[in-house]
Design goal:
about 500 residues, alpha+beta, 17 helices, about 35% helix, 6-stranded mixed sheet, Nucleotidyltransferase, domain 5
Amino acid sequence: MSKNHYILSIDQGTTSSRAIIFDINGQILAQKNFEFKQYYPKNGWVEHNPYEILDTTINSIKHVITESKIKVEDICTAGITNQRETIVAWDKSTGQPIYNAIVWQDRRTEDICENLRGKNLTEKVQKKTGLIIDPYFSGTKIKWIIDNVNEANKIISNNNLLVGTIDSWLIWNFTKGDCHLTDATNASRTMLYNINEDQWDSELLELLNIPYEMLPEVKNSTGNFGVINKELFGSEIPIEGVAGDQQAASFGQLCFEKGMIKSTYGTGCFMLMNTGDEMMLSKSNLLSTTAYKTSSERKFALEGSIFNAGTVVQWMRDELNLINNSSEVEELASKSKNSIYFVPAFTGLGAPYWRSDIRGSIHGITRDTTKADIALAALKSICFQTKDLFTCLIKDTGLETKDFVMRVDGGMSSNDLMMQYLSDILGIKIERPVNQESTATGAAYLAGLQSGLYKDIAELKNLWKTNKVFEPTNLKDQINDEYNCWLDIVKKEVG
């Protein structure tokens, strides 16, 4: 491998921070992740310590540099991908956060959202941003910080308060305060960004009383995002690719053509379908978002969000002690002999319901219900929610089931039992890549494009390799009956 042909990919997620070093062929030389603490100060509140995010990210980078045995100066470029709607506010004069990061899962701003809905702003917000009004998105989180953190207004009056999604927080710290930046994909998740006009929306900012000056400058997903200061790792590294985690995963799955779908099974589950050059407004409560933006093109996507996927397995491991490691859930679930139903609404239900007030439940338990039954019901519940999203996609696009192929990634995609069930319930082919680190790969590809390591998107297509393909079996009728039973339960709870 020639000098300067390595890419550092920084994948800052909801439960851990990960760094990966790729070579130009998309092969992983080294990877490392460090988990960090989740804070739950009140029911429905979820927070992270911004310094823990930063420290775990830096430590993961140091680890992979050492493990890969390459020189820092041989790293040509760096890409960043991140948990998207999570927000940090900090004092630019001190660099200190004024509050914990408020995580995308957090539901504390439901009252603010309800007030906006009560003003009949739902349609306006959707037309401007592609989003529905929900605590999920960053805008109301920023308003909450301004309204509830004592020192916020003082810092604002001195024009020193900065806010941003996690990519902005990392970039600001990596560049020692030189750059306050984000990209179009992250901006499109704030409920403050007009994705038609490609700029912060003055009307929405005024509506939420958020000063424009505190927001980051929005750049393409490929571009100059500053340089990682040499004090951190011994040599400067240019940051040249940034995208929110789900858009990065879609890019890493090479979903460049209209109609291509990826579904990521991580902490939550997120399905994105490339809709081409124009924004398509959903009629089924899906989200419209920027898929990626480069100097040569901009693509949009329809997205469905499931708030709890991997968290369900973590809950079975950490709170119920049904398993010791997340990888054990497949073997346990395979032993199930009884059907029960699980609604994993730990932090509400995402698309297409958008009900933050619904909570999780298990139905059909009897004396002979086993931990294996709970495990299988948990896995099925994630497939059922994916079916909800897929049904919405069909309604919105008018396409037929046979027109779809889905590419999957994320930790749970390694579960063959679940992937086969997913193929059966959707009635489509499921493709799993050899490299399941699609999110980090997407960030690496974006940075590689900007740096010139890759000539164009067409060159990237040659890097795709399939690990396994799942195709529907003859269990369609049985599985549809199970889905309809689950759907009836959800409809009763939603009301």
